[in-house]
Every structure is written in C-alpha cells, then in structure tokens.
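During the second half of the funding period, the structural biology subgroup turned its attention to how the target accommodates small molecules. The most pressing case was zinc ion, which had performed well in the primary screen but for which no bound structure existed. We therefore specified the complex as follows and requested a full 3D prediction, including the ligand pose.
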Amino acid sequence: MDVMYAARLICSDEACAAEAEVVAATLAEVEAECCPACGAGMQVLGVSFEASATGAVLRMLSHERERLEREPARLAA
Ligand SMILES: [Zn+2]
C-alpha cells in the first residue's frame, strides 16, 4: 500500500504568505515544494498521512482550483 503525505504549507516569504496543500509520496518532495505565487520556499505547517493517494486527493478538493493553475494536466487525466 502506498502511503502519501498530505502537507499544509505556507510561503516562507512573510510579504507573500500564500498557503498551499500538496500531496507527495515522500517528505523530501513536500519540502521541495515552492510557493505557487512567488516561487519562494515553503514552510511546512502540518503533515498528515494518508493510506492511499485517493484519500489524500479527496482531502484536497477544496484546494483544487489552486492546483489547477499549477498542474492543469493532472485534472485532465
Ligand atoms: Zn510566496
């Protein structure tokens, strides 16, 4: 079973402070995430574990519009 990390992130730039949620297979991927608004590094606010990618994605539905701007190909798949 694949364990996914669903992480809540905030931009490390105080002037931006954009928040985002990402789902990744490893914590390294979570920490490598960049701010979608300004490209700065992100600080991890919290991480939850999901037993499946589907569960993780369901948690993110409210953030889907933000992701759509970044990853249009994912929604089409
Ligand atoms: Zn930012």
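Two results from this model are relevant to the next phase. Residues 11, 13, 16, 18, 35, 37-38, 40 surround zinc ion (CB under 6 Å). The mean pLDDT is 79.
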